[in-house]
Task: structure prediction
Amino acid sequence: MFRNLILISLAVTLAFGQAKPKPAAKGAPAAVKGTGMAAKYKNLVFPPLRDVEIPNVDKFTLPNGMRVYLLENHELPLISGRALVRVGNLFDPKDKAGLADLTGNLIRSGGTKSKTQEQLNEALEGVAGSVESSIGETSGSVSFSALAESTDQVMGLFAEVLTAPAFRADKVDNAKIRERSGISRRNDDAGDIAGREFTRILYGKDTPYGMQQEYATIDAVKREDMVAFYDRHFFPANIMLSVYGDFKTAEMKAKLEKLFANWTVKRDPVPVMPKVSESAKPGINYVEKTDVTQTFIRIGHLGGKLNDKDYPALEVMSAILGGGFPSRLVRKVRSEMGAAYSIYSSWGANYDHPGTFSIGGSVESKSTIEALSAIQEEVSKLRNLEVTDQELSTAKNTALNSFVFNFDSPAKTLGRMVAYEYWGYPADFLLEYKKAIEKVSKADVLRVAKQYVKPENFTVVAVGDQKKFGGKDFSSLGMKVEKLDIAIPQPKQDKAKTDVGSVAKGRQLLDKAVASVGGQASLDGLKDYIQSVDAKMANGMSVTQKNSWAAPGVLRQDVTLPFGRIVTFFDGQQGWMKAPQGEQPIPAAMVGQIQQQLFAELLNLLRSNQVPGRTVNYAGNGTIEVSEGPLAASLVVDEATGLPQKSIMQVVGPQGPMATEVQFSDYRDIGGGLKFPFKSVVLQAGQKSNEQTVTEMKANTGLKSEDLSKKP
Amino acid sequence: MSNRLFCALFACVLTASAQNVADLEKRITEFDLPNGLHFIVLERHTAPVFAGLSFVNAGAANDPAGKAGIAHMFEHMAFKGTPSIGSKNYAAEKLALDALEKTYDQLEEERRKGPRADQAKITKLEAGLKGDIDKTFGLVDQDAFTRMVEENGAVGLNAGTSMDSTTYFMSLPANRLEMWFMLESDRFITPVFREFYKERGVVRNEYAMRIESDPQGQLVTALMNTAFADSPYHIGYAGIPSDIDNLRVGDALAFRKTYYVPSNITIVVAGDVDPKEVRALATKYFGPMPAGPLPPPIITKEQEQRGEKRVAIETDAQPMLAIGYKRPDALHADDPVFDIISGILSQGRTGRLYKDLVEDKKLALGAAAYATFPGGKQDNIYIVFAVPNSGKTIDELEKATYDILEKLKKEPVDDATLKRVKINVRAGLIRGLNSNIGMANALAAAHVGYGSWKKLYSQLDELEKITAADVQRVAKTYFTAKGRTVAYMSKSSQEAK
Result:
């Protein structure tokens, strides 16, 4: 079909316009101003604009404490809603940066207690509906959208996602892979680099506002962390639910009461968002990027809050400096110098913490220094001279005459009401803002420019290629210059470096581990054992199993399940499996997996110093890496006592490689001078999968391998 | 870059439920002025605002040889004003602008002599040209046009150049309707190409920002450059830097004379307006626009491709992959089938590209398909765009993408999927009805592309008729190695271990 690619293409179309969204808009008088216009424009009389209808939002609180905002609108057969949650990535622990982002993603993509992500996808898109979730810096949300005809179905799924997300392990894994990919790509776009580094420097790279996720912090986030993070923040009293569209208010109210009747979780209020520490970081931060033909720049310092009394005057000031075509920066750098396509300024303000005052854009490489000096000059002019009458009226009229667009859709009124209540702003904030804009004078603009714009504190980030600056450099700008290193810290390697020293240390530590459980002689003396184990699965199911082992490595496992007994036999190379349904040899594809699992068994790893062809290597922090051909596992021991604490191995499952960790405790004597852990906790991809308790264990019973292969 | 970005990009404008169509039909009026200018008016009285959109049926594909970028340059110039808007003294400005052109002519004439050119004369003329440009600049009332509309409360003031068309649009408070007509007609009937040579630098900088400094821009440009040999689509939206650097006012005038004629323009007004008033204002302000002959169509057709083409881009950026398959223009009977296929491949989270490449195989960070690229008026390409996960290679991703396309050929798509795609297309249009500017664009594009805005809805009938066999046949016919072009970028990076 024909499609206007301007609106939907791969971001390659050429939209001529402002580089930045304009400040929230504002309304008022008529009469075209300006110079050089023919009389007919001046004489144009505008009829009065009819009043906007401000819709009435129904507000109430559900018995569970969830606040609800309903706005009926029947223009189209559509319905949408959003649960706004007080949470944010500001709550990320420093060593787990990315936790909020991952949690926000997985609430939807990790499926629910009763449905996988795929089942949700089919159910929702089968009726052209959607449910999505995310957590940003200072809020999180779960939202839905549906055709009115499928309201019940989509809202049911919405409630399920909101109240019972499952964080399924395979999706956790997938989301982390994508986070890592995102990290690997974060230095591809020069504009992104400039914006990101500017923000991080201003807020402080180690603060919640400035820190960023790294491979290591993503790796550190475990499924339990996400479950706990969700659990702490997603509860009814912490949620504002708004619903908009084609429904009847009374019916919707009843529907919501029913939908959330059983969700009665109570938690303490979440903590307040952290404060911003304000300290200037003046200077130029240069990031070298050679594959661009422009320099991407950001200049500025911390800004303010939306409810600062001077915010309206600062908005007018910023509009005059760089808020659109008629602004000084666009005129100078774009129209006059022809050196940029995108150039703007913005007085950044947030509801609860300072935003950033920034001047930004991208200028042709050869004009970088000229553009930066031109910007310096414009800032200086702004702070020393009053703006002109025309500039003031253009900025104010632009804001006031477009004020009506704050009301062009009833949904905007609903969104604003929720935002104001979330941040504790007065309901008439916007109207007061409009009144304040009307009052801004030239003297006000000069006063706020002097008071709030501090060129001596400017942080500059410039991303580009200094070699293309036409022989000029930053020195003429009179600022301290520093080269910024944005190299992405690489993740810890899976395998530690192997050298003579680390191998010797590994073998030494392994000897110590062997000694701690009874010594080499006791280990060598073990010819067989029989153990009974109670295994408790994460889903609460319990199974009893009997493991029989005979040297050199023959294993039989009898597992009792509610529906019968499963017996598995494996002699190291092959085996069989017998279940109530029948019997089969162990498939060739599974042999490798079983070998890997047996390789990671504690007693096998402990024996490694005596097995020719095995590599034993010390990898730091009590970790001994053991490998033999394709088989590999690590044993983590207490360096002081030598006692083995856990084993770790990578298992390649249907969802790709996954770490399996077995934590040992409760060592007891099993005879022959040997100690064995009677308790093991098994974690898969960081998620607890089962807990095993040995109820009985006998060593050297005289068991023969042929006894083990007998079929039941 | 998140997968959701890719999901959101499949926004299809087709059709709504019968009730909405009937309702819409009542709210739409159409008329032609005697000079051939077509108007569509959509009444939507939700709020006292409206959107005005002018749709010119010419775009980058119409750039003449050696002038690649003129359609886009022209679009920029449409914001520079008229004799009565944007000048401090138009009589003096006109003289200065003419003088400037004369100097530039002399300079070009001398330069054309090549090795025999008089360098001293060139240097002198260059200095003269610079002086002339400065002189004209002194007579300009900068940004008068944009300042005027913005002061009057315009939001979303913008324009865009695609391969096939150029659009100009903004939203205004409803009481500014007459002002909009005044300004819009003035810039179409009597544009002044002031500040042309400074704006040329801005256009060149836009190229630097969107193509040269953007890995994705480079990739898509390379895909077009490679896939098309004859078609004007081979250059891409943004022109060619060396052409841009040499564009002249005369080129813009010639382009305007050919393509900016009333019969080649459609204007849509959508919002809180009275159709009778719109008609009266249209007649008053656009009536005087002189009629002109319909511009000649592009006659150059892409010849049949005889084998796979591949292009690799060397870049510091992480890899991305774009695969294009030759397909016929948007008026071809198979056109709606391609839209259905895009639904099957990249609708939301159920699309096969997301499900298979992103969720199941974990090969991609994101993937999406686009039925028509870079435009629909000419034979074009169906494209699949995919971004590999860190540690995954372009090769793996490419192979897995082919597996998905092969499946379309081998197995008929199941009923549930077909139904799901169709309902989502329908819902997409209902959602689009929410926006004045979105509707204005959809109505204009349907009128120009298919001959009537009603095609927006009649297309639903065609779409409903599409069967699993159609999907299979179209996949087999077009998704062949012979008609394929693959563009990718790669680097041996340490992150991609």
In short: The radius of gyration of chain A is 33 Å. Chain A touches chain B through 112 residues (CB under 8 Å).
